[in-house]
Amino acid sequence: MQLSVDEITRALRIKASILCDSRLKEESDFVCVQYALAAHAEDSLEEICHRIYLLQCARSEYQILDTVEQGVQLAHQYTLQHPGMWLDVSYMAATKNYCKIQDLAAFRPSEQIKTDEHRRIFLLGNYYMWNCLLPDFQAIREGWTYLSECDGVGSELLDPIATEIIMHHLWQGYPKNIKEMFFYNSPTVINIFWSLCKKFMPKHKERCIHLDCNPEALSGIRLDALYKTPTKEEARVKLIQTIGNQLQLRRQNEEKFSLEGVGVAQILGLNHPHLSMP
């Protein structure tokens, strides 16, 4: 993809700010660019560093290792703890981003999140899923898309513990963009849920939320029926393999990317409006 000089400059400033902040551990150049691409124009370096601090605290508290192996293990544990919730991860060629398809009716926090280990699996599973959806700079810039089946969702979706785990420990700190979120057959409870979540979202992102989607092509069909094939277990295993491949792709991109070269190119005053990145 192409990174603009402004994006590179911001990433370099974020990297320098991290090194100057005694609270923060060093981040990879890839992650510095991720924060630069996910930040809004009005965000200060102090605000960005605070988000980095929040996420680093979560990594420390929940022992997030940022490895492909741990990510695959957590995907396996998550899909067993929340069976049928994650359906697929797909690449959207037209928009060059990734989409997660899920069945929210399969999420039952009062039954599935009872212990500290359940909480850890829930949090780390989502963390690695987000990494899976953002394996490269193009995907990070575009942001992820969610397709959610909501038929059968009840009031327990508003579980305060599950909401607090994600919103406090991950959502505020993780560098992300949201392209669009579609909710199929959404009941009133989904509207209430998003009214609570909006306070954590930038105003300009609220228009990305599409409630009560009912396309004619899916009339009378739940989304999960399209993905639990040939069997639920085979679909689950295939999904874990996809997540592993995505995490490996992100790891490869992270390991081979360096701001050092592009920073020097910028300082030397190359006249290209954009610089190519892997």
From TrEMBL:
Q: Which residues does the UniProt record annotate as the domain CRAL-TRIO?
A: 120-211
Report the CDD domains cross-referenced here.
SEC14 (cd00170)
Question: Which InterPro entries does the entry link to?
Answer: CRAL-TRIO_dom (IPR001251), CRAL-TRIO_dom_sf (IPR036865)
Q: Which SUPFAM superfamilies match?
A: CRAL/TRIO domain
Q: What is this protein called?
A: CRAL-TRIO domain-containing protein
What is the species listed in this Swiss-Prot or TrEMBL entry? Seminavis robusta
